[in-house]
Design a protein that fits this description.
Length: 325
């Protein structure tokens, strides 16, 4: 049985940080039932109506290129230093499990994440040829860090080629507690907390160049389309469960672990973008762009379950100077 929910969207795509370090952010607050949305193609065959699986790719800030790794053998370094409000073992275990989800042989994909750890503490995201995951314990302030954002991934690229990523977990002012929840869904719901494994599985989708299947807040400019050419719609509660349960859907509830699993949409994206035995297709290699994703959430109020919303995009120039916290 699902808990009652109060939902808050925390940011809308895109948040832009250009090489000049300017930033643009938009956010929307929604209370009540869960908001859902996706651009869906409906097909009728012999009287049956079914949604067509689709996915959305992150675009470069100038909207010229879809983002992708030229070589999807991606080494991640988990920084465990500093006084982080998370168990180091849980952080490493959640990261390893999330990468195994994307690496699974049955995905028939060329994606191959590897995980190493470092005693270094979190630092400002930088183009340093090191793909990091770290827990930020200070300086989580606007812009571009909203206090109700749980995690943020910055991606550097050259044209459409992703060349570096940094994922930051909000360890300073998380609006809901982090946890590595049990594998049993019923036990996970009773324990509560935001599942770190599910959040990192979602973030790794953005590391790979995938975007959300719907938008939160104001419509993005320019408009987004999915891989079938359909416009991406606002999140709304009227869409199929297959869409609402997708790992890349921009919402989750404390206590839920379903986002750990890839849906047919993400599996289709892996098959199309990173097929086994074939090099990914990269557009516009040689120019400098960047992109990423954020995780947002709401405070728990009056004992009602709160939602966590994956709801923003961060764009950064390849030669951006490091910005202070």
């Amino acid at each position: 049985m699902l808990l009652s929910r109060a939902w808050l969207s925390a940011g809308s795509c895109p948040i832009v940080r250009e090489p000049s370090q300017s930033a643009l952010a938009a956010s929307a607050t929604v209370a009540g039932m869960r908001l859902f949305g996706f651009a869906v193609v409906i097909a009728s065959v012999l009287g049956l109506v079914a949604p067509t699986h689709a996915y959305v790719r992150t675009r470069s800030e100038d909207d010229k290129y879809d983002l992708i790794w030229a070589q999807p053998e991606i080494a991640l370094t988990v920084r465990t230093g500093g006084s982080i409000p998370l168990s180091v073992n849980d952080l490493l275990e959640a990261t390893t499990r999330a990468t195994e989800t994307w690496n699974a042989p049955e995905n028939d994909s060329s994606v191959a994440f590897s995980v190493a750890s470092s005693a270094a503490a979190a630092s400002t995201p930088a183009f340093d040829h090191e793909n990091t995951i770290s827990v930020r314990t200070s300086g989580w302030d606007e812009p571009p860090y909203s206090p109700n954002v749980l995690a943020l991934t910055t991606v550097w690229m050259e044209g459409g080629a992703i060349v570096d990523t940094d994922t930051e977990i909000n360890g300073a002012t998380p609006p809901a507690p982090w946890a590595l929840l049990p594998d049993d869904p019923v036990m996970a719901m009773t324990e509560g907390g935001v599942d770190l494994q599910a959040a990192l599985t979602h973030e790794l989708g953005h590391v790979l160049g995938l975007a959300h299947p719907c938008y939160l807040g104001s419509p993005p400019t320019p408009p987004q389309v999915d891989n079938l050419g359909n416009p991406v719609l606002a999140c709304s509660p009227t869409l199929p469960a297959s869409i609402l349960d997708a790992t890349m859907y921009p919402s989750a509830t404390p206590g839920e672990i379903q986002e750990r699993l890839l849906s047919d949409d993400e599996l289709l994206a892996l098959h199309d973008l990173y097929p086994a035995g074939r090099a990914p297709v990269v557009e516009g290699a040689g120019s400098s762009q960047g992109g990423g994703c954020a995780v947002g959430g709401s405070h728990v109020r009056d004992g009602v379950g709160a939602a966590v919303v994956f709801g923003a995009v961060l764009l950064a120039g390849r030669r951006r100077r490091p910005a202070g916290p």
